[in-house]
Amino acid sequence: MMPSPPAPDVPQVSILIPALNEAGNIGELVRRCRAALERLGLAHEIIVIDGGSTDGTVEEARREGAVAIAQEERGYGGALLKGFQTARAESIITMDSDLSHEPEVIAQLWSAREGADLVIASRYVAGGAAETSILRAALSRLLNAVFGRALRIRVRDLSSGFRLYRRSALEGINFKARDFDALEEILILILNRGGRLVEVPFHYRIRKEGKSHAKLVRFGLAYARTFVAMWRLRRSGRSER
User: I need a surface site. Which of 50, 120, 167, 238 has the fewest CB within 10 A?
Assistant: First the structure.
């Protein structure tokens, strides 16, 4: 059954931004997101999911017009869960809080949404790029290549968190991962239900302020721990895209 059209007071786009101690970044990000959405003429909401910031992140986000809420479960996956539960729009965009995901790319995600259940801003398709350390770039490419081949997923950038989801594609999906591997699990669950994925190129930028909260060792271990679970999940699905 097709979802009902949104009520007049329901936004067309929900922007979800998990954040932890991102004062100095979050205000600019919210302003630029709002400007990008206004250029597209889209009714929107910007939701910052805070993981317990102590540096004024919440106050800065609210000053710029965002809704700031506290996440209830741990980790990046916990922030996504809270955001999905809160978002009201049919199109839901997730992005990082450190300005590595440039809001101007929102227009590309929006343009590619027709017929897609998930649009991924990709570093690894033609036209994409990443500003990062050699070690982090190598690990990211290795993980994406291994997961993509082993799980038979024709996506170049499985670990990009800059995405546009169709709300109907998320309905009934219960993901268990609470670290960054939630991104792969959600993707697999959508694919297993026959969902259609599209990638658009983007340039991943180095953060402007502060330090990354995605620790390299923890990042790698999270994927290593869940590889078998993801493989089993993929095999159990009906879709072999």
Answer: 238
Here the tokens at position 181 are 């591997």
In a domain? residue 211: yes
What tens digit of pLDDT does each residue of 206-226 get?
A: 865 555 555 556 666 666 667
User: Per the structure, how many domains does the chain have?
Assistant: 1
Residue among 15, 22, 52, 16 nearest 212 (CA) = 22
Q: In this predicted structure, what is the pLDDT of residue 216?
A: 57
The pLDDT tens digits of the residues spanning 56-108 come to: 999 999 999 999 999 999 899 999 999 999 999 999 999 999 999 999 999 99
Q: Identify which of 133, 149, 142 has the alpha carbon closest to the alpha carbon of residue 214.
A: 133
Check pLDDT > 50 for residue 5.
no
What domain range is 21 assigned to?
A: 13-236
Contacts for 40 with CB less than 8 Å, ≥ 6 apart? 106, 107, 110
Q: What is the CATH number for 169? A: 3.90.550.10
**β-strand pairing of 44-50 with 91-94:** unpaired
Q: Is residue 183 included in any domain, yes or no? A: yes
Residue 241 included in any domain: no
